Amino acid sequence: MSITGSKQKQIAVLTGGGDAPGLNAVIRGLVITAKKLGYDVLGILDGWKGLIDSKHCGFMDLDQVEYIHMTGGTILHTSRTNPYKIENGPEIVKKTLKELNCDYLVAIGGDDTLGVANKLFKEGVNVIGVPKTIDNDLSETDYCFGFNTAISRASEAIENLHTTAKSHHRVIFVEIMGRHAGWMALEAGMSGGASYILLPEEPFDIKDIIKVIDNRWKKGKRYAVIAVSEGAIPKKGTMALQAKEKDSFGNVRLGGIAELLAKEIEEKTGKECRHVVLGHLQRAGRPTVFDRVLGTRLGVHAARMIDNHEFGKMAALKATDIVSIPLEKAVGKLKQVPKERYEEAKIFFETGDNDE
Ligand code: F6P
């Protein structure tokens, strides 16, 4: 059964992977611009799962998207379903698009979602991508929307934890999302005045953390707040970690490193330690101004890309411009924190070496 909107040209849109503040801004930017260009936009529900199960919310009108750029989450809902892990998944996706009368598809998501979009493009689907991840680890775009909101939340948490850590003479480990890239821990840690920052890119030695803690005690500060990326790993053989479960894209579910560190450092130093896991609080709720504007601009560009038939590409931020980049160039390449950025952050760690 095919469905038809008020216009001849129909775009399907979906959001995949973890939600990020700014997704609704992209949807609004896309719907309003597409309407002006003569398209109807059909909202697919639950990410790629919606194109397998044929679940949609109908054609979106202007009332439906009014003011949604100020809201968190995604009005289209999301999932971590990978059609390439489902029997005949890609064929079902193509069949569903045909049945829904949608010649065009906009996939908003991270590396997993955009990887699927790239494969579908090679199989003939007129798809364009919009990069999204609070982790900010996607290549070929300077910033992803959602990241600014997430680091603002994490920075505020780190900043606030100073007063309680100081009052009790405690070390507080703050676990920050970010999987295999430490952008969030780095920037939130720098902004929130963390005493030490641990990133997945730089395996840590517990002795270095203890050195900073001891030094702060020697100086009479007698507290520390330490930013720990959830993907932070110890140098080989220095600490035991547990095996973790995986999702359908093979991503490991992380978490627990701050708790382990708090236990081990309390044992080794005798200083009272606590841990806080910020988790989904980082990506929940209203987007910052930066993410609202970036999301909106990407949505506008996505509609124009469809109109210009720039398929197989994604909208991306380069300096202050929104540009179109081939998906092939962007997917499968993790953008991690370069050494120089960590060196800058390390200047503020009080190791006792020339930091009086
Ligand atoms: O990729 C975004 C992200 O928030 C990561 O920072 C985090 O590791 C992961 O998603 C959490 O996934 P879930 O929401 O499935 O628990």
In short, what is this structure?
The chain has 356 residues and is an alpha/beta fold. The protein has helices at residues 23-36, 48-53, 62-65, 89-99, 111-122, 147-168, 183-192, 206-218, 257-269, 289-307, 327-330, 339-346; strands at 9-15, 39-44, 56-59, 104-109, 127-131, 171-176, 196-198, 224-229, 273-277, 313-318, 321-326. Helix content is 38%, strand content 17%.
Which class of the largest domain in CATH terms?
Alpha Beta
Overall 3D geometry? elongated
- Report the mean per-residue pLDDT as an integer: 95
Bound ligands, each once: 6-O-phosphono-beta-D-fructofuranose
Under the CATH scheme, which architecture of the largest domain would be assigned?
3-Layer(aba) Sandwich
Rg from Cα: 22 Å
**Which strand order spans the largest sheet, edge to edge or round the barrel?**
3-2-1-4-5
CATH topology of the largest domain: Rossmann fold
Poorly predicted segments: none
The helix-strand sequence is EHEHEHHEHEHEHEHEHEHEEHH
Number of discrete domains: 2
* Range of strand content: 15-25%
Number of helices: 12
Structural class: alpha/beta
The largest sheet is: 5 strands, mixed
Count every beta strand, where a strand is a DSSP E run of 2 or more residues.
Answer: 11
What share of the residues lie within helices? 25-40%
- Measured between the Cα atoms of the first and last residue, the distance is 74 Å
Textual characterization of the structure:
Helix 1 (23-36) links the parallel strand 1 (9-15) and strand 2. The protein is 38% helix and 17% strand. The chain is α/β, with parallel strands linked by helices and 356 residues long. The radius of gyration is 22 Å and the shape is elongated. The protein folds into 2 domains: 9-145 and 285-330, Rossmann fold; 149-282, 3-Layer(aba) Sandwich (Rossmann fold), CATH 3.40.50.460. The structure holds 6-O-phosphono-beta-D-fructofuranose. 6-O-phosphono-beta-D-fructofuranose is lined by residues 18, 110, 133-135, 177-179, 230, 254, 283.
